[in-house]
């Protein structure tokens, strides 16, 4: 707590109690509660957000080189599905208010293409090795049987990603500019506070990049928990994605994840089931979008 001493003394605050809440320290003082966080050089983020008329973060009371003091906000407990909707709503507002176009060189898109191509090839070989190992056995375990029955779906997903990546690269390889936004880059349910207003917290990882990455990260964290067709519709209602952005988003959420082989047989079955559920859910999320685009092109 020593890093906060100067700021507390500066404001004449005597602390009766310290409470840790994640990376935030809540202090009880005779003047009320305050939230203190280490200043990691991101205090300018809040100034920038305010300058772009985005003020959905706790009010800053004071700050110095070591720490930032925020107002301490009461949070109400409410349905997680609504909370996810509210987060996506705020992120769409954040992106719409901070968007601008940035010149790029040829290598920037080429590097994205090559990195994703390597990742897709790695995942393909990973599952090829697994199915070869499974098929070499006389008897399959339950999780191996589950993989074997669905390996065609896994490979179809990988082929889709590879084909879409080539299509994406053809679409953008000659572009000279890209659309970028301020990314929150740390989206999770715990980083939304709601009372009479809504506030996003946890801005330590903020960066400037393509707008899709906030949605991709949120999807990969909560894909099986919420109806993302509603969330994507709300996002695009406020901040419509460009064609090349949609393609890249589709690729990033469709790449199958590796399976952690360290679990017990029972938990391995659960892991494979989650993998497959995500593949099917992603396919259902994207299929209407693909059909709409195909119809529009006819």
Give a description of the structure.
- The structure is a single chain.
- The strands form three sheets. Strands 1-2-3-5-4 form a five-stranded antiparallel beta sheet, with no helix packed on it. A three-stranded antiparallel beta sheet has the order 6-7-10.
- The protein has two domains: 2-71, Phosphorylase Kinase, domain 1 (2-Layer Sandwich), CATH 3.30.200; 80-290, Aminoglycoside phosphotransferase (APH), C-terminal lobe (Aminoglycoside 3'-phosphotransferase, Chain: A, domain 2).
- By secondary structure, the chain is an alpha+beta fold.
- The termini are far apart.
- The protein is 54% helix and 16% strand.
- Helix 3 packs parallel to helix 7 (228-238).
- It has helices at residues 5-10, 43-51, 80-98, 106-135, 142-172, 212-222, 228-238, 243-254, 265-297; strands at 17-21, 24-29, 32-38, 60-63, 67-71, 100-103, 177-183, 192-194, 198-200, 207-209.
- The mean pLDDT is 91.
- Strand 4 (60-63) and strand 5 (67-71) form a beta hairpin.
Please describe the structure with a list of short key phrases separated by commas or semicolons:
Phosphorylase Kinase, domain 1; globular; 10 strands; alpha+beta; three-stranded antiparallel β-sheet; five-stranded antiparallel β-sheet; Aminoglycoside 3'-phosphotransferase, Chain: A, domain 2; 298 residues; 2 domains
């Amino acid at each position: 707590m020593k890093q906060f001493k100067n700021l507390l003394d500066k404001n004449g605050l005597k602390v009766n109690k310290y409470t840790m809440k994640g990376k935030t320290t809540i202090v009880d003082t005779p003047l009320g509660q305050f939230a203190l966080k280490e200043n990691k050089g991101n205090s300018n983020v809040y100034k920038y957000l305010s300058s772009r008329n985005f003020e959905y973060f706790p009010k800053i009371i004071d700050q110095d080189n070591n720490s930032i003091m925020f107002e301490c906000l009461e949070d109400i407990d409410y349905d997680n599905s609504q909370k996810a909707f509210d987060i996506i709503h705020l992120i769409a507002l954040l992106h719409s208010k901070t968007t601008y176009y940035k010149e790029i060189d040829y290598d920037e898109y080429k590097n994205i293409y090559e990195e994703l191509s390597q990742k897709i090839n790695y995942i393909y070989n990973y599952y090829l090795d697994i199915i070869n190992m499974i098929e070499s056995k006389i008897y399959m375990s339950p999780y191996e049987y589950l993989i074997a029955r669905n390996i065609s779906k896994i490979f179809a997903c990988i082929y889709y990603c590879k084909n879409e990546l080539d299509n994406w690269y053809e679409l953008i390889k000659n572009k000279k500019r890209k659309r970028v936004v301020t990314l929150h880059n740390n989206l999770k349910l715990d980083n939304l506070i709601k009372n009479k207003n809504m506030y996003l917290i946890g801005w330590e990882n903020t960066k400037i990049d393509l707008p899709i990455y906030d949605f991709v990260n949120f999807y990969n964290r909560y894909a099986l928990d919420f109806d993302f067709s509603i969330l994507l519709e709300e996002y695009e209602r406020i901040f419509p994605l460009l064609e090349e952005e949609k393609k890249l988003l589709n690729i990033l959420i469709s790449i199958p994840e590796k399976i952690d082989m360290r679990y017990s047989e029972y938990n391995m079955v659960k892991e494979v089931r989650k993998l497959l559920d995500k593949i099917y859910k992603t396919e259902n999320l994207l299929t209407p979008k693909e059909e709409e685009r195909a119809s529009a092109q006819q």
